[in-house]
Amino acid sequence: MKEQIIQQLKQNKTVLIASHTSPDGDAIGSLIALGLTLEKFGKKVVLYNEGPIPAVYRFLPQTDRVLCALEPDAFFDIAIVLDCSTLQRIGAAAETVKLTPVTINIDHHVTNTGFGDFQIIDAKACASAEIVYELIKKLGVAIDAAIATSIYTGIFTDTGSFRFANTNLAAFAICNEMVQLGADPYCVSKNVYGAYSLNRIKLLNQALDTIEISQDGKLSMMVLTQAMMSKTGTQSEDVEGIINYARRIEDVKMAVLIHELKNGHKHKPACAPHPYHVSLRGNGNVDVASIAADFGGGGHHDAAGFNIESTLADIKNKILNLEIGDVNSEFGILNSES
Ligand SMILES: [Mn+2]
């Protein structure tokens, strides 16, 4: 498959590269790394991310050239979609991609639908940045400090700083090489774990106040509403990482964050259905990707999510009634007590 993709890249001139909305470090890092590489490879490259790009990732090279909207008549020879389990994850540009003659799907989500004409889907890869790195090697393009920093950041953030179950040998090997090629670990972590705004701490306080634990103690649940966000003056990027507080509670196997989405109908009463994004985080013993898939979402074994239009009471009920059975972890973590 890699050979065919390289063949396609050689034959064509204009390339659109896109990654998912509400991007994380892997979505941005992979996007920039592949974009800079293909430019060195002689391609005309447009980078797309619907955003918003969190402030903590704006230190990455050339993030200011990432477009959040395309001209309605924009046309490309090839579209490359990164870190997305479905094409729809990129947002409005999916319509442009559908009209593109060749679509390449590069991803590491187990729930990837296999869309596009060519795919490299590797659920064992620690990040999409790992797959992008391998593609760059195959292309034979020299990795400069800007590309190295972008790949390093993608792997560093998607492995939770080498803490999550997806942390593999490649994560260390590639990051070691990226540091040799000019990535600065201190600079990356200083930016990624930069200072929190007071507003964000106030939002965290509100979120912590909503924690509920299921009867058997295996599930923790948090809620963030738009009212809390406007009260604390926070944006969607400030929500990132908050779920980890619910996950770290003793005995919890799965943490859930129910986040009310922005286009909630303002004039509807609180008991009417609203759009929510539900994030799931497992501790290694629960396959949260399959739970998310049951609700029409997707993700990884330990981190997944879905969107739902519901009342808050309904969704909380559904979640508290979920069966959190132990499954065989694909990472072999079978240290469950029960
Ligand atoms: Mn990723």
Overview of the molecule:
By secondary structure, the chain is an alpha/beta fold. It has 2 domains: 2-192, Alpha-Beta Complex (inorganic pyrophosphatase (n-terminal core)), CATH 3.90.1640.10; 198-320, Roll (Diaminopimelate Epimerase, Chain A, domain 1). Helices cover 35% and strands 18% of the residues. The strands form 2 sheets. It has a 6-stranded mixed beta sheet, with helices on both faces. The protein is globular, with a radius of gyration of 20 Å. The chain binds manganese (II) ion. Residues 26, 83, 108, 127-128, 158 line the site of manganese (II) ion (MN).
Using the 3D structure, state the CATH architecture of the largest domain: Alpha-Beta Complex
- How are helices and strands ordered from N to C? HEHEEHEEHHHHHEEHHEEHEEH
- What is the highest CATH level, the class of the largest domain? Alpha Beta
How many structural domains does the protein architecture include? 2
Give the arrangement of secondary structure elements.
Elements: H1 2-11, E1 14-19, H2 25-40, E2 44-48, E3 78-82, H3 94-98, E4 102-107, E5 118-121, H4 128-139, H5 145-158, H6 169-180, H7 185-192, H8 198-209, E6 212-213, E7 219-224, H9 226-232, H10 243-247, E8 254-260, E9 274-282, H11 288-294, E10 298-299, E11 303-310, H12 312-320
Parallel strand pairs: 1-2, 1-3, 3-4, 4-5, 7-8
Antiparallel strand pairs: 6-7, 8-9, 9-11, 10-11
Helix pairs in contact: 2-4, 2-5, 4-5, 5-6
This protein binds manganese (II) ion.
Manganese (II) ion (MN) is lined by residues 26, 83, 108, 127-128, 158.
